[in-house]
């Protein structure tokens, strides 16, 4: 395919993409396929000779689309949102064409510099304390990671390195293994499973701090476990606070937890993967109070800030903490400016070496929407969540299982887990809308997350009508049994 | 921006991309900017109100492009290639629009299933032993990782878990820390720095095995270190072989190393990040002989197989080895088909949770080029490398520093390191072509990597003429001193 054909096919693809997103409501949100559906539909091996583009595009509708879960359908209420916007798609096209690999400043200076400045922009949008920003030539700064799991892992590894150095400076006879055996990371019993996975990767113990009745970690709960663990000779080194848990969007009490972590020399990382985007609205910024105590903070614009996956942003107070955990410098990656202290080589801030030019997406989205446009998007979602909550509350067969603060509503039929499992099954089998469940202290609960950029009140009203219809059927059939 | 405006702007962007790639020769391959160039050119913070798209696009030429290192310029001979092709760009547009997050089968079935089948296609293209393929419902299978560093890390973590379990099954009193203190990973003294970084993340020791005169690890060199380490009470658990080292594209002797690893219960991972793509040509497949002894194998189609970054492919003989190292299963990620054994949840195969629909790029590229088209691309690059090598050999002031097997030529002026450093500096300062150096046993060597998809003999001839002109100047000025 040469440039001439690309011009033609690219424009067709632009129309295909616009059609797909404009008419996505008409597609069934969750596919009908069974595991293994695809293999019989395509050849056993790659073709020897080039095929016609028309045939590939035909197969997109015939083979690919029937197996897609349509995350951008306004009938998709599962997991958490993943972002999608036209400005981000345009930026990604440009980023793909430039196709630079930004592991060092020299490998493509703008790839590094735009990222640093965009992270400052975004930091200011959420009113992050200035120590986290790079602009004043302070010790902090921001970086784009692929996912929140990676951001937590990077923070945990930096914390591990600091803890090992500290323990060895106090007792030179300790081996790394001696110390690792005693290190303990902490997080909420409601935290995302990726935090536990990160601890497996880092090879350290993790303990889940019990949350209170509202699924929130309080200072006293952390303090209690810390005291027990220290008495048992363990070394607490890392606490991952969650703002907006996956289960029910609860918020750990940073203002209680932060001072404890600072006092105990524990690295506090804040995972606000979903909720973080809301902090651009002044009325939700209070949820971030206490971030000043944190060592690192992360959220995912690729969830709720209209920037396509992947774009998980992370700030640290001391960038040297990350760099010390990872820095390894071979000759083929050295460059003239490296020792100047003025530049950033982002490869020392992350797990992989290579990285795409992702800050372009932030730049396009911030400029095309403006802060106001992005705030509107957040507020619309929160409003729709409250609309759904109000519908649930009007039907006394149902209950709301957690405070609705942002765009997630946890609800269930009053009754057994089996009943609610049956309800969810009937909802997802009907394929009109798509939800996933969660487990709240043994209760099987349905999560209704406002997801699509284009979701409106009509979709919420439809979803609730549909859910109650299925609930009616279910309850009727149960009575008959 | 609504769909109507996206149709217009998207088509303009397609033209911009086509123009950029068609006329990339006219751009200076390496930018003139100094560290910190960007910040003064853009506002301190994000705009409150939306801006005009025209203004953003103007800034792309005014602010972004002057800071780009043009990796797809035919005058770019630095690092290793990163791939870029029109079919891959089209697939990425589609993938961006679908914007699904494929962490589990249910989260978008086709995202998982196409990946599994494409990895089988690609495995067959390089004639990988059938144990690595998923199609026969065997124990192996392939996965797309972001980068080779992540693939090595995943393999190392799986190996670490196996080694810990084995050691604890032999002696229940050993703690994880006791074992980690004794674990040793091995790799070539020529291996990519990311392998060492991975060992830092995994918290294990790493030793670099001395290579022979041709920068290759032989069986005897590994055996010697293993014997010493075992005698010292250490536990060898992981060996990362390199096919196509970053420094000089040398190939470790798999046929000697593999049996040793198998015998010693050491996980053998093969990193063929750059070279792996060449194995689709029968005449280069011999370089992969011995892969049958490996536990895992990885290469980067995003380097040399015309699939845009990121797309690093990895196969394992036993997928359960990866899954055991990572599997953590919360309710909100469970789905009906999970326990059927028929499906793959790729989140257990990788570090992050989220993942894009990257197999679409493989599918588009394989079908639009056909195996023959891809083979042609590889062969053209290898031929051009030999053309450059022959030019160097005709000038007896220069020397070739390593066998030219694929698309990399290591060369230098006969003389001091200072002389060669000065030559590289004058090459990169002139900005006509771009190269990076390497260190070969204390020798400062210039690396000339065939990179761009569109590079032709004329660019090679130009580059050599330019290098010799700068060398003439340099040698003349030195004589005058």
Automatic annotation (TrEMBL), chains A, B:
Matches recorded under InterPro entries: Aromatic_deC (IPR010977), PyrdxlP-dep_de-COase (IPR002129), PyrdxlP-dep_Trfase (IPR015424), PyrdxlP-dep_Trfase_major (IPR015421), PyrdxlP-dep_Trfase_small (IPR015422), Pyridoxal-P_BS (IPR021115)
SUPFAM superfamilies linked: PLP-dependent transferases (SSF53383)
Keywords: Catecholamine biosynthesis, Decarboxylase, Lyase, Pyridoxal phosphate
Domain of life according to the entry: Eukaryota
Transmembrane segments: none
PROSITE patterns: DDC_GAD_HDC_YDC (PS00392)
Pathway: Catecholamine biosynthesis; dopamine biosynthesis; dopamine from L-tyrosine: step 2/2
Entry coiled-coil feature ranges: none
Cofactor: pyridoxal 5'-phosphate
EC number: 4.1.1.28
Subunit composition and interactions: Homodimer.
Family to which the UniProt record says this protein belongs: Belongs to the group II decarboxylase family.
Name of protein: Aromatic-L-amino-acid decarboxylase
Source organism: Pogona vitticeps (central bearded dragon)
UniProt gene name: DDC
């Amino acid at each position: 395919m040469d440039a001439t054909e690309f011009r033609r096919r690219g424009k067709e693809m632009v129309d295909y993409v616009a059609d797909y997103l404009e008419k996505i409501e008409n597609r069934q949100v969750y596919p009908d396929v069974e595991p293994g559906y695809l293999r019989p539909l395509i050849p056993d091996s790659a073709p020897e000779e080039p095929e016609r583009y028309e045939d590939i595009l035909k197969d997109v509708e015939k083979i690919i689309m029937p197996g897609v879960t349509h995350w951008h359908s306004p009938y998709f209420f599962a997991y958490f949102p993943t972002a999608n916007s036209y400005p981000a798609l345009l930026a990604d096209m440009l980023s793909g064409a430039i196709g630079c690999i930004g592991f060092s400043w020299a490998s493509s200076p703008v790839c590094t510099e735009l990222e640093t400045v965009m992270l400052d922009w975004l930091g200011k949008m959420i009113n992050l304390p200035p120590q986290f920003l790079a602009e004043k030539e302070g010790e902090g700064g921001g970086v784009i990671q692929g996912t929140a799991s990676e951001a937590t892992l990077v923070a945990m590894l930096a914390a591990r390195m600091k803890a090992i150095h500290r323990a060895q400076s106090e007792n030179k006879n300790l081996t790394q293994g001696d110390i690792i055996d005693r290190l303990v990371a902490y997080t909420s019993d409601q935290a995302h499973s990726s935090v536990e996975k990160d601890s497996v990767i880092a090879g350290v113990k993790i303990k889940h701090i019990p949350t209170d009745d509202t699924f929130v970690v309080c200072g006293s709960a952390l303090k209690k476990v810390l005291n027990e663990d220290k008495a048992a000779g363990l070394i607490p080194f890392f606490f991952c606070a969650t703002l907006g848990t996956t289960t029910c969007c609860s918020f750990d009490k940073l203002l209680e937890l932060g001072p404890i972590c600072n006092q105990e020399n524990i690295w506090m990382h804040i995972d606000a993967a979903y909720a973080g985007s809301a902090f651009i609205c002044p009325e939700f910024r209070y949820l971030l109070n206490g971030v000043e105590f944190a060592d690192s903070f992360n959220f995912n614009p690729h969830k709720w800030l209209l920037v396509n996956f992947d774009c998980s942003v992370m700030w640290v107070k001391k960038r040297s903490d990350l760099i010390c955990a990872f820095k390894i410098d071979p000759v083929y990656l050295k460059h003239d400016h490296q020792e100047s202290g003025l530049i950033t080589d982002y490869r020392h801030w992350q797990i992989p070496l290579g990285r795409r030019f992702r800050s372009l997406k932030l730049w396009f989205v911030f400029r095309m929407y403006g802060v106001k446009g992005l705030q509107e998007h957040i507020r619309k979602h929160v409003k729709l969540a409250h609309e759904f909550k109000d519908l649930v509350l009007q039907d006394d067969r149902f209950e709301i299982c957690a405070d609705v603060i942002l765009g997630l509503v946890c609800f269930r039929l009053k009754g057994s887990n089996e009943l609610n499992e049956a309800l969810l099954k009937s909802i997802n089998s009907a394929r009109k809308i798509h939800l996933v469940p969660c487990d709240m202290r043994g209760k099987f609960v349905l999560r209704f997350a406002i997801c699509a950029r284009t979701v409106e009140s009509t979709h919420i009203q439809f979803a609730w009508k549909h859910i109650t219809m299925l609930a009616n059927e279910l309850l009727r059939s149960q009575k008959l049994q």
